Amino acid sequence: MNERVTTITMDIVESIRDVLRKHDVTFSEYRAGIMHLARTQGDGEIPLLVDVFFNSTIVEIENRARKGSKAAIQGPYFVPDVPHVNGELAIEASAKDLPKMVMRGKITDQDGKPVAGAVIDVWHSTPQGTYSGIEKHGDLDKKYYRGKISTDANGRYECKSILPVAYQIPNKGPTGMLLEEYMGGHSWRPAHIHYWVQADGKRDLISQAYFEGGEHIEDDCCNGGGTDFMVPEKYEGDVRVMEVDFVLDEAVASLEAAE
Ligand code: DHB
Ligand code: FE
């Protein structure tokens, strides 16, 4: 096994031992902890639990090396190979009258030059606070509320949709129990838009945007970056304007090779 794996594994074990000692954890408390992990495994929630608490930390580490826009957590609901869209994401017939938004902005490089032909995957929740293309969310056709959009010659993009809503992570299982009962918190995320920006020769950027005035921006159960990613409240008529610019870093050769 490589040395880094050994070092990190030993550090994780030692930090857990420190917590057990610090709190004089008893044998029955220890058994209860094991049962909680077993339930998390049984319910298939290990990835959820780990992501809720630690994805934001990995993003924080990644961001130390970024000179341009900072990255945000990806969340579990990205779906690859969705269609390119032109100006508007697909909206269900039943949602046509709901409040609208327009996502727009400019993508530039480290020198401030526009990045033409960048591809941005955008995805956001349904009006019910679920995601399309996800079996556990009812398998709504993945064309809805998602799409790839491209920047024009000036590095600009623009695309309409309806407003996403606040999202509650699955809270009936062991992860919800940990957040709500054991930690006295809640299991809500603010309404948000996801972005995954890709351009030739540039480092990929996964980001999110939150809506000024929305709930749970500063007490996001997933520590999603809070006001750093909040977009000021602005309307054109009754359409909410989500203006988000991205500054891309140059591609990192060692990362490309690893992927
Ligand atoms: C989760 C869901 C999201 O939509 C998101 O952006 C982040 C996390 C989740 O269920 O863990
Ligand atoms: Fe999300």
Outline the structure in words.
- It is a single chain.
- The chain folds into 2 domains: 3-42, no CATH class; 55-258, Aromatic compound dioxygenase (Protocatechuate 3,4-Dioxygenase, subunit A, Sandwich).
- 27% of the residues lie in helices and 22% in strands.
- It contains 5 helices and 12 strands.
- β7 and β8 (205-211) form a beta hairpin.
- The structure holds 3,4-dihydroxybenzoic acid and fe (iii) ion (FE).
- Fe (iii) ion (FE) is lined by residues 75, 77, 167, 192, 194.
Describe the structure in brief.
The protein is an alpha/beta fold. It has helices at residues 3-22, 27-42, 46-64, 174-182, 253-258, and strands spanning 100-108, 119-124, 146-150, 156-162, 167-168, 188-189, 192-198, 205-211, 230-231, 235-236, 239-243, 246-247.
Sum up the structure in keywords.
Protocatechuate 3,4-Dioxygenase, subunit A, 2 domains, binds fe (iii) ion, five-stranded mixed sheet, globular, alpha/beta, binds 3,4-dihydroxybenzoic acid, 259 residues
Overall tally of domains? 2
- Structural class estimated from helices and strands: alpha/beta
Q: Which oligomeric form is depicted?
A: single chain
| Distinct ligands, ions and cofactors found in the model | 3,4-dihydroxybenzoic acid, fe (iii) ion
Q: What is the H/E string?
A: HHHEEEEEHEEEEEEEH
State the end-to-end distance. Answer: 20 Å
Tally of DSSP β-strands? 12
Strand content: 15-25%
